[in-house]
Design goal:
This protein has a single domain (4-158), classed as NAD(P)-binding Rossmann-like Domain (Rossmann fold). 41% of the residues lie in helices and 17% in strands. It has helices at residues 4-12, 27-38, 78-91, 110-116, 121-129, 141-144, 147-158, and strands spanning 16-20, 42-46, 52-53, 56-59, 71-74, 95-98, 133-136. It has a seven-stranded mixed β-sheet with strand order 3-4-2-1-5-6-7, with helices on both faces. Helix 2 (27-38) links the parallel strand 1 (16-20) and strand 2.
């Protein structure tokens, strides 16, 4: 399996991404959305219950987006992650990143990860069965964000929570 750094570099080198969010006031998805925009990506918001965010359209599903995306950051519950991955399979979207701020193999905060993380074992398996590159945890902000997020990445790496 590829090292997380290789997977992250590939994912973050893409120019057209989508980010799913559980609600318009979710700090994690909003921060990721805005940071990827500042990085120069085209970013589409995905949420079936919202029409706009930051004066931009929000799409109910991936097929409604004006162009095919290169990858999807999933920042929702596990149940929604599976629905989104099924769409990725149907549309041939080659990359998925399931958000979990505690890493890809949480060593601390496991209860929090199980409750609020986006990583679904079934969705990860579906990605792998369909040749979709998947990052099963961590957060883009830990690689392109502020110093606090980068320190979190360092800590997670030291305790073995960023293994793939």
């Amino acid at each position: 399996m590829a090292a997380i750094d290789d997977l992250v570099n590939d994912f973050l080198s893409q120019k057209v991404l989508a980010i799913s969010s559980p609600s318009p006031d979710d700090p994690a998805s909003n921060l990721n959305y805005r940071t990827l925009l500042k990085k120069g990506c085209t970013v589409y918001a995905l949420n079936p219950e919202v029409d706009t965010f930051d004066d931009m359209p929000v799409y109910p599903d991936l097929k409604s987006m004006p162009e095919k995306v290169d990858g999807v950051v999933i920042i929702t519950g596990k149940e929604r992650a599976l629905v989104i991955v099924k769409e990725c399979v149907d549309l041939g979207i080659p990359r998925v990143w399931m958000h979990d701020s505690m890493g890809t193999h949480p060593r601390i905060g496991k209860g929090i990860s199980r409750k609020v993380g986006s990583v679904s074992g079934e969705a990860v398996a579906m990605c792998r069965e369909n040749n979709i590159m998947v990052i099963p945890g961590s957060c883009p902000m830990q690689f392109i964000g502020d110093i606090g997020h980068k320190c979190m990445r360092g800590f997670l790496r030291v305790i073995g929570a960023l293994e793939v």
